[in-house]
Design brief:
The chain is mainly α. Helix content is 82%, strand content 0%.
């Protein structure tokens, strides 16, 4: 068990270092590209030709999106950097989450039936809480009602929210039933784990 967790920890450390190094290098490249695009560096020099030949084609998809959104093409390198940093953060967070779940699974298997019960309760509540989070986030952004990510979050969270809406009043235009459902799930999980 400790061997598996050790390998996962080592892999995460290497990935964190790699992502940080890649982000640092990309920050320098994006800074130089921005200097060329804003003509703070000679746009006819060798460095500018290098940027236009090798870096700009990589940033072109980001530039198109920035321009379509009403932004300046010169800000495309910074948006590309933001996208890469956010992608790195998401990848590291997901891998760290998976490492935690694998550790939880291994410890639960060592405890026998009691540990498996605790694992199932924890995973069930975590899945329902994730459905609540996804549903709240999707209520803030435009999304298609028939999308798979809308359907699964709605299917899992609606049985929790429907009875609560009858009891919990809205505060102005704000529906606080997802918050109440989150707290109730946390209390139910604590109670079910206290039973064993």
């Amino acid at each position: 068990m400790s061997l598996i967790l050790g390998v996962l920890d080592s892999t995460l450390t290497v990935l964190r270092t790699g992502f940080f190094g890649a982000a640092a290098v990309l920050a320098v490249v994006c800074g130089v590209d921005w200097l060329v695009r804003t003509e703070k560096l000679n746009p006819f020099g060798a460095l500018a030709r290098l940027m236009r030949g090798y870096v700009d084609p990589l940033i072109a998809p980001v530039e198109r999106r920035v321009v379509r959104a009403g932004g300046l093409p010169s800000s495309a390198p910074w948006w590309a950097l933001v996208a890469v940093v956010l992608a790195g953060i998401v990848v590291i967070t997901v891998l760290d989450f998976l490492r935690g779940q694998i550790a939880f699974l291994l410890f639960a298997l060592d405890e026998g039936p009691r540990g498996i019960y605790r694992l199932l309760v924890h995973w069930t509540v975590a899945l329902l809480q994730l459905a609540l989070i996804v549903r709240v986030i999707l209520s803030w952004i435009p999304s298609r009602p028939g999308s798979w990510y809308v359907r699964w979050s709605h299917a899992l969270s609606e049985p929790l929210l429907r009875p609560l809406r009858r009891v919990v009043p809205k505060i102005g235009m704000i529906d606080i039933t997802p918050i109440v459902a989150w707290v109730l799930l946390w209390l139910v999980e604590a109670f079910l784990l206290w039973l064993v």
